[in-house]
Amino acid sequence: MNTAIRAVVKAANYHHLDVMGIQGGYQGLIDGKIHPLTSSEIEDSTDRGGTTLKPSRSSEFMEEAEKKDTRGIKKL
Fold first, then answer.
1. Are 32 and 26 in contact (CB under 8 A)?
2. Do 9 and 43 meet the contact criterion of CB atoms below 8 Å apart?
3. N or C: where does the chain have the smaller number of CB atoms within 10 Å of the terminal CB?
4. Half-sphere exposure of 2 (CA within 13 A, CB side)
5. CB neighbours of 67 closer than 8 A, spacing ≥ 6?
6. Burial letters for 41-76: b for 16+ Cβ neighbours within 10 Å, e otherwise?
7. Is the pTM of the predicted complex or chain greater than 0.85?
8. DSSP codes joined into one string, 7-38
């Protein structure tokens, strides 16, 4: 997963786009744990196992999704 995240960040940087990471998956989206991902932050992430974002599922997310609170996020 870290390799895929790194590739997305590098491609986005090339095209002058910002990439936001959501720490903790769906629960992090609810809790507002959203931060910019930079090349320097993810540069050596491929050497670590798992993923730097620690994704997870959340039943609370399904309830929140019904409220349509997008927190300014246009696309996931």
1. no
2. no
3. C
4. 14
5. none
6. ebeebeeeeeebbeeeebeebeebeeeeeeeeeeee
7. no
8. HHHHHHHHTT---EEETTHHHHHHHT-EEE--
